[in-house]
Protein 1
Amino acid sequence: SRLRRPPSRACLREVAGARWFPIIVVTALRDPSSRTLAFRTGLDDYLTKPTDTFELRARIDALLDRQRDRDELVRMNAELRELQDFKEELVTMVVHDLRNPLFALLSNLEHLVANAPVLTEVDAREAIDDSVVAAQRMKRLVSNLLDVTRIESKRFEVQREVKTVRELFAAVVETRTRRLRERGIELRADDGGLALPLDLDLMTRVLDNILDNGMRHTPRGGSIELVAVAISDRIELRIGNSGPAIPPALRSRVFAKFDRLDGSSRVNLGLGLYFCRLAVETHGGAISVEEEARLPTVFVIELPALAP
């Protein structure tokens, strides 16, 4: 009789899930209508008995090749979707992070142009200094973005030289002295007389990001500390501030790409702290967040005391 109830693929599909699952029907039915019904049901190949072993193996190999090709296409589609999501997040992040310093830069320049005849030297200097700070933030964002791309693609080489921690701290403190003074924020730096092998430019930008993050959240009249401590074969750089603490459950997430800390008073937007993690890890180190009674938020950078 004809193939009236062709094999259902439902059970096999449950086993395979979303993955394509090729099925060959082997039957004694030779009439065209049975063959047509089998293919309409969704079967992938049709063999009639008696079955030639070599032909069966050839059909199986052909279907397995199709399955591998299909799986590769599924993988590539997933990567393309992920890339598209990344692109959208990247555009959002860049627009968000560039907008604030760009507005600050334009506002100060417009202020200088409009009020140049009546501005005092102090007012003009402050507007210029604020413009420089905004331009530096924009430059750092672009540099971070480029370096993140290079580090993620394994095309970044750390240029290590033995530098004193005092050099590293001075590079980030000097450019912020006026802003700290204006906000009444006390900054204490203790380099411990230590030195270590590092890429000074890269680690300077790491501390730039962490200090800027700390200054955004430190209240007026608060304090920030930079301390270096030698522990065995490693050196800890501890950058703490008196701003609100980051909840323990969220501390690892502040270093994730594009993560937002919903429900927290502290929010990580953009690539800043993600860049910090990548840069520290390229030095063979690690970065984390701790909490102290006097300084609720302390970023801890552990670096090898000797070059690997």
Protein 2
Amino acid sequence: LGGPQDEVAKMAGEFDRRRRVIVAGLNRIPGWKCPMPQGAFYAFPDVSGLFGRRFNGQALHGSAEVTSFLLEAARVAVVPGADFGSDRHLRISYACGLDQIREGLARIEAACAGLEG
């Protein structure tokens, strides 16, 4: 705790960069609203703007259905927000590298663009 903090500052800066990239990317997707996380390394976007849209003929209603849709259509794993107190939200980690974050965002955006309704 009393030693050099150079690496800590470097990693904190990297997580801030990842946080800004994921939030901006999620907010570009129609139907998604993501506030800037204040701690940890998870985004908690509101995806209720997707509710009622259809994937394979089934309407999306709730975070578990959106989670299943993203896994199947985008091959992106997220956690239902219902597990954290809000069925309108998803929990998405940004503890991976920027290339993976950008790839995931591209997949999510493409999958959402293919929703019906």
